[in-house]
């Protein structure tokens, strides 16, 4: 499967395939349909090759892809820097190329330390729309003012990345009114939409992520 396909005008996020637990093939294909540019972390390259997916770029130290076929249309970028993770390297690469919307799969599961770090990394890029998908959830950092239509009973969680202040919500069962959430102290997990319609979330400072449960 090639990453080059029809993309509707104005809908051109990039995709990063990380090295965590694989999501379903159906989810991967559905996300790729909207992503004209695919970056693969080198640790995931063997699995991507097995799925017959052609990446635009592979990033990493390449210790783990020796002997695997290398497509002539794929660019291999060696970055030996040990101060940043491969996911951070891929995000920096895409941001430098001008991408503001970036989807990420295979970033959860397997090693817990990697999962937690991958989630925290989203908070480093508040000016970009970075979304992590797996088979059970969709996670992204919220802008300071957010509104979206949800259905009655939809489950969402508000997770501060370090801390978020002045949080006010509407149409959620557990309402917040100018309140603070702090990682390790108080978070907003397992909230629920009261009625089909707009859910609004506003906050004044810090970084606040939203996780939509999709299973």
Distance between the first and last residues' Cα: 26 Å
- The overall pLDDT average reads 89
The profile of the biggest β sheet is:
13 strands, mixed
CATH fold descriptor of the largest domain: Rossmann fold
Instruction: Report helical residue fraction.
Output: 10-25%
Q: Give the helix tally.
A: 4
Protein model, in words:
- This protein is an alpha/beta fold and 215 residues long.
- The chain is elongated, with a radius of gyration of 18 Å.
- The longest helix has 11 residues, at 86-96.
- It folds into two domains: 14-136, 3-Layer(aba) Sandwich (Rossmann fold); 145-213, Jelly Rolls, CATH 2.60.120.320.
- The model is unreliable at 1-11 (pLDDT under 50).
- Strands 1, 2, 3, 4, 5, 6, 7, 8, 9, 10, 11, 12 and 13 form a 13-stranded mixed beta sheet that branches.
- The protein has helices at residues 25-32, 45-50, 86-96, 112-121, and strands spanning 14-17, 37-41, 57-60, 75-78, 101-105, 129-133, 137-141, 145-150, 155-170, 179-182, 188-192, 197-202, 205-213.
- It is built from four helices and 13 strands.
């Amino acid at each position: 499967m090639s990453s080059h396909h029809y993309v509707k005008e104005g809908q051109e996020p990039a995709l990063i395939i990380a090295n965590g637990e694989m999501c379903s093939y159906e989810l991967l294909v559905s996300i790729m349909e909207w992503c004209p540019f695919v970056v693969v972390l080198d640790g995931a390259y063997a699995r991507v090759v097995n799925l017959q997916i052609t990446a635009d770029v592979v990033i990493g130290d390449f210790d783990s892809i020796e002997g695997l076929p290398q497509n002539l249309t794929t660019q291999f970028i060696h970055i030996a820097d040990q101060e940043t993770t491969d996911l951070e390297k891929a995000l920096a690469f895409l941001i430098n190329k001008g991408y503001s919307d970036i989807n990420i799969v295979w970033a959860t599961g397997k090693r817990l330390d990697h999962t937690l770090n991958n989630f925290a990394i989203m908070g480093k890029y508040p000016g970009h729309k970075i979304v992590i998908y797996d088979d059970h959830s969709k996670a992204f950092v919220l802008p300071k003012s957010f509104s979206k239509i949800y259905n009655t009973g939809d489950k969402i969680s508000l997770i501060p990345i370090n801390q978020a202040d002045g949080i006010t919500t509407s149409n959620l069962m557990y309402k917040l009114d100018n309140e603070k959430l702090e990682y390790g102290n108080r978070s907003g997990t397992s909230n629920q939409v009261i009625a089909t319609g707009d859910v609004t979330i506003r906050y004044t400072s810090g970084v606040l992520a939203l996780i939509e449960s999709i299973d």
